Amino acid sequence: MLEAFYDAARKEGRIPEQEWKAKEDEITRLTEELRKLKQQLAARSGEPAEAELSKLLAAGDLDAAYRIKSKRAENFPRDLYELGVLCELRFDWPAALENFRKAWQLGHDPEHGYKYGHLAQKLNQFNEAVLAYEALLPICTDLASRATVLNNLAALYLDTHRMKEAERMYAEALAIFRKLTQFNPNVWLWYVAMTLNNKADVFRATNRIEQAIETCREALAIYRKLAEIDFGANIAYIAATLSNLAILYTDPLRVNLAEQAYDEALKIYRELAVDNPNDYMPNVATILNNLGLLYRAMQRMKEAEYVYDEALKIRRNFAVGNPDGFLPDVAATLNNLANLYTVTERMNSAEQAYAEALAIRRKLADANPDAYLPEVAITLNNLANLFLSMERIPEAETHAAESEGILEPLWQANPELQGDQMAKTLWTRTRICAASQKPAEAVVFAHRALAAAYDPALKQSIQQLIDRLTPASQG
Predict the structure, then answer these.
(1) What is the CATH number of domain 1-139?
(2) pTM
(3) How confident is residue 474, by pLDDT bands cut at 50, 70 and 90?
(4) Is the dihedral of CA 9, 15, 18, 22 positive or negative?
């Protein structure tokens, strides 16, 4: 029943893209919500209306149950909340959010507030979610509830680039969970590790790599300790933390550590995928894709191509049954393969892979421009660079100009987020102008690229290009 509602909601565009891969988890969660709602109604079966609702839920008639509940839920927090649950069960998330919001505003029940904030967060209604969680904090009566709200609030601050606030919230949540381990370490150590991983995300986002590594290592040690008690419940968390660590080992002196971490994570995910391929083969593909990036950086091109090919095969297979969920991953691996083909001078193969990635991303951007237009721009710029290296200057100019046109409004709206990619596209246009014997235009594009860039290494490279283009200005 719930799967049918889910599939209909996705086809109608009512389920956010980031939730597409979580179908099984969502149905499992909502099955439990349905059980709890049935239990609550059964406890009130002495009321005729509640008895009728119980019969409808037992029969699986959610639509009729929704109609009855909606007639008498106008000003009663409990009924509004339960109406919100019914909306969730029907995957009508906007209506669920509205009812949870009303229930919270009328009764200020912490359970209602948490549900409201959590669903707003899921629907990317970040401001609403932040306000809900911030209002919840003062009325959280127990430490565990407070730490959970702090964790969710920190995640929202991280998503909205409020790094200081995110770090502060994670620090307080971590302190609470550490305190709770004194009473029941087997339960609360897991939450300590989870919060450490979250805190590491803040360190990584603010380029404090050593602190991120140290924090991830502590989380990994905790998961390994917990796995000695309950291996099955913790082994996937070990793999995920190993993957996070590998990504953090960006120093050239640590590439061997990165490879070791990826290899261990890959082994774990492959073993888990034997019994649960739908749950863990996507993780296998992700590790393979990341290994490809590492091997390429280590100049191990054959190995990089091998793992990219396997990752692409896995992702194509999953995209057949769930194109919305996995086509973005297909495009990402195609883009990585095309980069590899370019470096190894297989230009026709690179062009084909970029073209397929571009076609996928254009299609995705038609449905979700906010998420995928930046990726369209990146792929266009990659193609422009490829055409430039092949001396197909008009095609290079066409693709670079389109990339700039897509990025311009995005960059104006959020210069910190889009600045480096805008700079890379303008840098490409600089090189195209230079190859076309248009030095004056090249210098204009180069200065615009320098002004847009944030990354110090990128700024340095652009400045060096400007110095080459304007030798008379040196000294």
Answers:
(1) 1.25.40.10
(2) 0.81
(3) very low
(4) negative
